[in-house]
Amino acid sequence: MENKKPTRIFIVDDHQMVIDGISLMIEGLAEFCIVGATTLPLLVTQLLEQTPTDILISDVGMPDMSGVELCRAVKNKFPQVKILALSMFGDSQIIAEMIDAGISGYILKNAGRKELIEALTKIADGQNYFGQEITLQLMKSFKRNQEEIRLTDREVEIIRMIEKDMTTRDIADKLFISERTVETHRKNILHKTNTQTVVGLLKYAYERKII
């Protein structure tokens, strides 16, 4: 029976030490082989043209080109290439953007060799892989999103008045309620939308077509 060809891996990270560390963790495993690496994300698509690759291990936060931009460029030109994102942070917004851009997995840079190999193995088999910490962040984000839809009709009405630059007194007069009640509504709205300022609240509302 013919032996299965090793999964070809290309690494991009703006720190050579990270590339060297990943290479050492993969070295010696028959099921994987590193076919290339670079610290320059802008060169990746050009290098992939010359280097057949199955999985791209990509840093998320790089100068000149973000991981999200790189992921989109790679998936647009090489849709068959699977991408494992690597990051120092598990920010749910970045994770969501990377998922939307087409990644197959996301792990943190503090992950050990065992988790890296597990991620690569699952991705090579056509599955997705997200580390435990990443999954937890996604679950927290999902929970927040579930809470976001619980804005009451009155709260939505107040958000729309805030967008019109109405003051607390203006809103109170318009709705025939006390200014203290308006302030309570505002605090509840900021809490539910996980925002701290009016600008942040309005950005949230615009993105979700509340206003």
Fold and architecture overview:
With 211 residues, the chain is an alpha/beta fold. The chain has 2 domains: 7-143, Response regulator (Rossmann fold, 3-Layer(aba) Sandwich), CATH 3.40.50.2300; 149-207, Arc Repressor Mutant, subunit A. It is 53% helix and 14% strand. It has 10 helices and 6 strands, in the order βαβαβαβαβαβααααα. It has helices at residues 16-26, 44-50, 67-77, 92-101, 113-124, 132-148, 153-163, 168-175, 179-193, 198-207; strands at 7-12, 32-38, 55-59, 82-87, 105-108, 129-130. It has a 6-stranded parallel β-sheet, sandwiched between helices. α3 packs parallel to α4 and α4 packs across α6. It is elongated and about 75 Å long.
Shape: elongated
CATH topology of the largest domain: Rossmann fold
Poorly predicted ranges (pLDDT <50, ≥5 residues)? Answer: none
Average residue-wise pLDDT = 89
Q: What is the C-level CATH assignment of the largest domain?
A: Alpha Beta
Please state the second-level CATH architecture of the largest domain. Answer: 3-Layer(aba) Sandwich
* Helix vs. strand class: alpha/beta
Summarize the structure.
This protein has ten helices and six strands; from the N terminus they run βαβαβαβαβαβααααα. The protein is α/β, with parallel strands linked by helices and 211 residues long.
